[in-house]
Known about the structure:
- It is built from two helices and no strands.
- α1 (2-37) packs antiparallel against α2 (41-71).
- By secondary structure, it is mainly alpha-helical.
- It has helices at residues 2-37, 41-71.
- The protein starts with a helix and ends with a helix.
- It has one domain (2-65).
Amino acid sequence: MLYSMITSKISITLCIVKYSLTHFSKYIEMSVHALYLSETENQLNISYVIITRHIAISHRIMSIMNFWLDVI
């Protein structure tokens, strides 16, 4: 019983890690691409907002992952 509970928590943690790493790299790639496409100051501001939102989302995912690691 204890073994199955530990393995299920480990598998959930690994899924969260995989999800966060996949989406974090995708967000960084999208943000860098948006910076390359931006030419005017307004577009630079939009790109900055995109980057900060993606960093906030990835920070939230990492805090969820840290919570699961603490639970284990």
